[in-house]
Amino acid sequence: MTTATTTKLTAGTWNIDASHSTLGFSVRHLMVSKVRGRFTDFSGKLVINEDGTASAEAEIKVASVTTDNEQRDGHLRTADFFHAEEFPTATFKSTGFRVNGDDFVVDGDFTIHGVTKPVSLEVEFNGVNEGMGNGPVAGFEAKTTINRRDFGITIDMPLANGGAVVGDKINLVLEIEVAKA
């Protein structure tokens, strides 16, 4: 594995600015459209070491899920899906960074619903800005696709004519802004 260095970011801890970040997802609904949602309560950090290597971690409160539909959001919090009462957090912890052209792939362990699996995030680095008087900020967009069944979310809601109400593939799109601590 090639270890990427993040020479465009200065060494130190960069904390996720949740007010300027979005942790979003989409999933097929009735096999013909997509339902989109996001989580509103999350935190995390990116640590840049003096040698330019990096690590990242994040924690998501799954009960903060919103699809802008209260009934659906309530169902997503139940044992059928996230089981938020028993598994209140989802976590990501990087295991490595790889160069991908001008961008990165961040490999890591993603835990949701009590199950941990390796995932790879395709990360586009959007740059660094001096910020608005509180120190530098940096931006990233990360994408990956997971299969909900791999994480023990196995609810079946079959349709009479074949297919299912909820698809298996979940597309994750993360728009992240970090601020230097």
UniProtKB/TrEMBL annotation:
<dbReference type="Pfam" id="PF04264">
    <property type="entry name" value="YceI"/>
</dbReference>
<comment type="similarity">
    <text>Belongs to the UPF0312 family.</text>
</comment>
<feature type="domain" description="Lipid/polyisoprenoid-binding YceI-like">
    <location>
        <begin position="13"/>
        <end position="179"/>
    </location>
</feature>
<protein>
    <submittedName>
        <fullName>YceI family protein</fullName>
    </submittedName>
</protein>
<dbReference type="InterPro" id="IPR007372">
    <property type="entry name" value="Lipid/polyisoprenoid-bd_YceI"/>
</dbReference>
<dbReference type="InterPro" id="IPR036761">
    <property type="entry name" value="TTHA0802/YceI-like_sf"/>
</dbReference>
